[in-house]
Write a structure and sequence with these properties.
Chain lengths: 303, 311
């Protein structure tokens, strides 16, 4: 029983983390039809920037609690710098090309950004850590559940995931710009004809998506040692999440994250050697049974 | 059968490479070796691309071929190069025939994603199977060729010889196939599936066949790589490896069977030099090359050669 509870708690925490990363990916795909492999690099950039910001913060001897502000700042800076740079500098010239070609463009971008990271931060593993070993992770302390100890930091992850999901749902369904966005998703040309600034919509969407990737990276940074190549690991997992849920679907990303989180937590507790295998098996099975993912609606027919 | 220029060129290059092999310095031989192994895999990618499909998981067959060869070598204690390659080809052919039943129904990004999922399943299995060395993989001995024991340099030359012969044979066979009735369907399927069906050809059977052919080529490439490098690990089926194959295929273009082989050589050369002179920016060099090729040469490097001919 307690093991089951542990699986559920781990699964929810892991799902929250996955959701934060995958939601940006699904947002960008939904609006722009770009399956962005460079999302993994943006995630890594978020993590590395968070390390630098926190290190600087601790070096000034400020209160450790402020390192949370540094995590947020890192995500915002990465999103605002790299989002516009990539969208305006490269992707803008690629719209209208085949989806597969767009995947390859972002793959090239991924390769470039991986080396940008190596050039700026070097190849050694980095840690978010204060002079006395304090991290945003450790200063919050732990709580007990059914005899096991969990860091409160995990609750931050869950909170951020829920807040992100709620905020995006609210924007998409309750605001004017959200409705315009949905119009662009359904028919880009028609929306343009109706006077919606499609270019601006793409620009904002990509920047927001990039920022979400960076949020994921920044929140991960305190919990792991930040190494090059972390983006490559995460991006396939995020693919699994969005493909399971249905590419471009917001509830799909949530469901996909939940499924992958639970499957992985369960396999880690019961059969650790099947950890990665089980995640991709679920991905393959979903693709076989419902190729467009669990949350795909009927395709809008275009003549 | 009339001999076309490609067939003649393949013959000349095979003989040339084999004749030159005693003179080749060590670095050139290993560069050629790796390029030819990659080239064999990309030959298969090219066939799929002609059919309009991009697989983001061909590392699956590359790795499977290598591990099949490794199993024959280490577990069955039959370290014969020819047997190892045969095992690689057979294993990938069987797996691809089964998975192809599913994949032949998929197109575009869904084909890419499902093949990615399959390759990551193998990755997930291999990194956790301690009998196969987990993330470290294991070493390959490949001590004999057709029963003849090989020592030191003889092993290197034999590895090179079998790589040259099998790669050029693959190119020769693929070139023949592409000129055959069914082979010509590939581009027709890419352009308009519906018309192909109306003409009475089965799109699904053709895609399935092409998938199996490309998988077997990847398996042969993987087995040859295992023999030449002498070591295999699960990274061979990790997604950046599959990405590399897609990269070379894009770089080469699909115009001719020489495109993948030449593209692989260009790729390996860029990579070796970039890696040698600036180990922290070689991926950036590759990424920029890829963007430049996609923007300015959508037909790949091969289209540079084609333009010179009068249309």
């Amino acid at each position: 029983m307690s093991q089951l509870l542990a699986v559920v708690i781990d699964g929810i925490v892991y799902a929250s983390w996955l959701f934060i990363i995958a939601v940006g990916l699904t947002l960008i795909y939904g609006v722009m039809k770009i399956l962005n492999i460079a999302h993994g690099s943006l995630y890594a950039l978020g993590a590395f920037t968070a390390v630098s910001f926190c290190t600087a913060w601790f070096a000034h001897g400020y209160a450790a609690a402020g390192s949370f502000a540094m995590l947020a700042a890192a995500a915002i800076v990465v999103g605002l710098v790299f989002g516009p740079l990539i969208e305006r500098g490269l992707l803008r010239f690629m719209y209208g090309k085949d989806e597969v070609v767009l995947v390859l463009v972002t793959y090239a971008l991924f390769l470039i950004l991986e080396d940008v990271i190596k050039l700026v931060w070097g190849v050694d593993p980095l840690l978010v850590q204060g002079p006395n070993g304090e991290t945003p992770y450790s200063i919050l302390g732990n709580f007990e559940a059914s005899g096991l100890s969990y860091p409160y930091y995990n609750l931050v992850l869950v909170g951020v995931a829920v807040a992100t999901g709620a905020a995006l749902t609210w924007v998409l369904t309750r605001t004017r710009s959200g409705k315009l966005l949905i119009a662009v998703i359904h028919d880009r040309e028609m929306s343009a004809a109706m006077g919606i600034d499609v270019g601006r919509t793409y620009f904002v969407t990509f920047t927001a998506g990039a920022m979400l990737a960076a949020v994921g990276g920044a929140l991960t940074a305190p919990t792991v040692s930040v190494v090059t190549g972390m983006g490559a690991e995460v991006i396939v997992m995020a693919f699994a999440v969005v493909v399971i849920g249905g590419l471009g679907s917001l509830p799909g990303a949530a469901l996909g994250a939940f499924i992958v989180g639970m499957v992985r937590a369960a396999s880690i507790h019961y059969k650790p050697e099947l950890e990665l295998f089980s995640v991709y098996l679920v991905m393959a099975v979903v693709l076989i049974v419902r190729p467009k993912g669990l949350f795909s609606g009927a395709e809008v027919r275009k003549i | 059968m009339k001999l076309d220029r490609t067939t003649i060129a393949i013959g000349v290059i095979t003989v040339g490479l084999l004749a030159a092999s005693p003179l080749l310095p060590k670095w050139a031989m290993s560069l050629l070796n790796v390029s030819l192994c990659y080239g064999t895999v990309v030959l298969g990618m090219m066939l799929l691309m002609r059919t309009g499909l991009v697989s983001f998981g061909h590392g699956l067959y590359y790795c499977l071929g290598a591990y099949a060869a490794g199993t024959v070598d280490q577990m069955l204690k039959l370290p014969d190069m020819a047997l190892m390659v045969a095992a690689g080809a057979a294993a990938t052919g069987i797996v691809a025939a089964i998975l192809g039943l599913l994949l032949a129904r998929y197109r575009d990004i869904f084909f890419a994603m499902l093949s990615l999922a399959f390759s990551m399943i193998l990755y997930g299995l291999l990194v956790k199977s301690s009998a196969l060395g987990s993330t470290d993989g294991f070493n390959i001995s490949a001590k004999t060729l057709f029963g003849v024991a090989l020592v030191d340099d003889a092993r290197r030359y034999a590895g090179f010889g079998i790589t040259v012969v099998l790669t050029t044979l693959s190119a020769f066979a693929l070139n023949l196939y592409l000129r055959s009735h069914r082979g010509r369907l590939a581009e027709a399927i890419r352009d308009n599936e519906l018309r192909v069906e109306y003409m009475g050809a089965s799109v699904r059977a053709t895609i399935h066949l092409h998938y199996v052919i490309s998988a077997v080529l990847a398996g042969i490439g993987g087995a040859l790589m295992a023999i030449n490098i002498g070591h295999i690990d699960p990274e061979m089926t990790y997604w950046p490896q599959s990405g590399e194959f897609v990269f070379i295929a894009i770089l080469s273009g699909t115009g001719n069977v020489f495109a993948p082989l030449g593209g692989a050589l260009v790729f390996e050369t860029i990579r070796s030099f970039a890696y040698e002179y600036s180990p922290n920016t070689w991926q950036m060099v590759l990424g920029i090359t890829m963007l430049v090729v996609m923007i300015f040469l959508p037909g790949g490097l091969w289209s540079l050669l084609q333009r010179r001919k009068p249309a």
